Amino acid sequence: MDSFGDLLFYLVIETGFLKAALVVNLLLVVVMILTLMERKISAWIQERHGPNRVGPWGILQPIADGVKFFTKEDIVPSHVDKFLYIIAPLVSLFPALVTFAVVPFGDQMTVNMFDHLVTIQFQVADINVGILYIVGIASLGVYGLIVGGFGSNNKYSMLGGLRSSAQMISYELPMGLAIISVVMLSGSLRLNDIVTDQSSLLAWNIFRQPLGFIIFFVAAFAETNRLPFDLPEAEQELVGGYHTEYSSMKFSAFMISEYSHIITASSLVATLYLGGWQIPGLAALNLPIVAEQLLQILAFIVKTSFIIFIFMWVRWTLPRFRYDQLMNLGWKSMVPLGLLNVVLTAAVVAFF
Amino acid sequence: MALESILFWLFAMLAVGGGVGVVVHPNPVKSALFLVVTFFALAGEYVLLMAHFVAIVHIAVYAGAIMVLFLFVIMLLNVQEESRLAGVWGFMRYFSVVLFVALFVQLGYFGYQGFFGAENVPLVRETEIGTVEQIGTALFSQYVLPFEIASILLLTAMIGALYLSKQKLGLGEPARAARVKEALHEKEEAH
Amino acid sequence: MSDAAYNLKTDRTILNFGPQHPATHGTLRLVLELDGEVVVSAEPHIGYLHSGFEKLGEYKTYNQWVTLSDRMNYLSPLCNNIGFAQAVEKLIGMEIPERAKYVRVILAEMSRIADHMVWLGTHALDIGAFTAFLYGFQARELLYVIFEHTTGARLTTSYTRVGGLFRDVPHDFKEMTYNFLNYFPGVLKELHGLLTRNRIWVDRTRNIGYLSREDAIELGVTGPTLRGSGVEYDVRRNFPYLIYDRLDFDVPVCDDGDVYSRYLVRMEEVAQSMKIIKQCIDDLPDGPVSFFDQKFALPEKEKVYDTIEGLIHHFKNIMPGHGFEVPKADIYDATEAPNGELGFYLVGDGSHKAYRLRVRPPSFVNFSCFPHISKGAMVSDVVAILGSLNVIAGELDR
User: Fold this and answer.
1) Domain coordinates of chain C in residue numbers?
2) A162 shares contact with chain B (CB less than 8 Å)
3) What is the pLDDT averaged over residues A97-105?
4) Secondary structure class of C329 (helix, strand, coil)
5) In a mutagenesis test of the B interface, which of A17, A87, A129 is the best target, namely the one with the most B β-carbons within 10 Å?
6) pLDDT value at position A45?
């Protein structure tokens, strides 16, 4: 290390700490915005206003919610297993935030910084087994539910936690199968390669893999525990979900992890099936590079927001599945369809 | 290089700490969670050895699926905390100390060999060994027979598990209709 | 090997549903005995809302009791008002003017629509479709505005009196009704679109809570629950009252006997109600809404202030210890409330108060079939079945 600048450069840029910190912060801020958007969108669908008291159009509502959660009394019931009860929200939050690390939200940008020519990847970590990383970390999301349900030391919470984790595990299979088909088409596990593979509008995977898209989308609903698969959280039916015994910040940690899962799942759908940060026909406009790249980041944000909107739209429209119907759908319909998709894709790739 | 060393020692300490935690804690759920920590540390070590695929699959399979099932079993069967078993084994305690020393000596010998006899061992620095393409190619060309046999084995295990756990009281639609019918018959007989 | 696994039976658990639970409609309690996730037996505990309406009927004059009838089925109070007033009029042998009959029919059918909107909203809410609730309630707001304009209150209408109605409908009643009739079919269409052919909804409600035809008749259920099991019985058809024998409407019946068929029956009933309202509002005759027979009804204010008979009769009807007298006879009279057959059994003993006022609440009898139809259901289905019976706790307990 020659100079302080070099050391700084190494610590901050090369090791990616700054990028990671920025992305995590951004994710948490977007989660906050999503809580407001959920209420506004649900109000719009139900012909109501939604929050509009705190700030114009309710913009400061998430801050008000945050203050409420911080100042609420944190009740730890006496009958819970303290260790498990306290780490469950953390265990739930960890995969939700970490999965986002491999999602690319823009193309590369080369700038001059600290006298070095730096290529900034708009992606926290460009690992060459990107998709597999997502599958692996998504399967860790189950722990939060199990530990939360068991730690509450409440017969019904435990059953709720076990049921919801069984649901999540069952739907990882169709998700993995849909991902396999996408990987077969683009020939690489690296997410950037998958994005650059969808270069023209017709090459977007949603058109090349319609069945896979549907399977992945439905599996994403089940993975994020959203309606119509939200039996683990349904209060009208269960007498306790896995987060019944939680209050204040721990409960909000569960909510944050749920919204982060939604953001990650939506960005994955956008990346795998909607062409990621690609804008078809952008090269023809011949804009300066910086403008092009900013537009691409904007395109990624628009696509992800659209999918998030669909998530919320579906939640307020459809009724809820019963547990055995849910499992039936997963094992008897989604898995065979996923396998069929893999076989068809393999046939097409092999022979054409 | 420096970063790699730091990470190596970090993961190594985490792995050993996790392993010790598994054995030491009387609460089975905590032991299982410590095992998950160990798996994470090992996955980190795999990444340092350039075996990315193995690392991720290690997390996905072991930490993500197998440990979840372990936790299911522990929770459903309500496994109790084990009490301290002191003075049960008798002379075996001394025998276990002897075995432990022998193990330690052997590990130390190989470690010494690895550290200082390193010039004889070629350092594999290729980035191509652990990648998915390489593993895939090997699996489907050289090792295709073991691969298929392994998958058949897994299929057999799944079918066996389903058969063993199939109960009379099912959760499907025909089973439910049968239950309702049975319940109504019960009511008739009660009259 | 699997026999050994089969013998690992778990004990039965007792699950308490309510009285405070997001899914029970009103305060009622269900003690469910579960084997795993399957309900083996369900024991309803009711009475949390018992207020003694029937006992109060022995202490209040007939016109005073109308206010209590609102509080029974509080989702369609006008139907209760109409049922009670009709029973007393039949006991006395009074005739009411044509206009009163038409207006009573219009308001009864509007209450039916209102009740079914709440039923649909809460039923869908329990199963997870949140938005149907709000669409239904928006339509209901329009009805509530009409009710408030006509009767003076949204919920506790107390609009009927013995002999007719409390007062005439406001001058823009026709216009408001036509507005409603233009607006509502769109809402109904949206609700149908949201739920009727929605695969998830059908999966959650088909083949759940089966009630056979014979059991339905034996248990005495009435209303959409009975018609959803294939029995064509509607008090408006079988024992016509008011002007129902002159009106052209269908009585929807579905043969399947499950939750889905009750849903379909109620949705179709709403459409038929709109048809009835249209016919009545088109032909609404002019005239008084009550003969204001001075012996039974409070005379009009002009008569009270101007004539001595009016004044005397006013005091005679109002003062405690006085009131119109009813012959020594008893009568059972029933109307078709949204939940089923709402019956009143009145025993008059010659005085101005009833000797016995007994209400046959449809919710009570419908709810009694719950343990039978929920046997073998799963816990999630219990909520759906409870929703389909439309149990209103106010009417259940009185």
Assistant:
1) 3-45, 53-370+379-397
2) yes
3) 86
4) coil
5) A129
6) 86
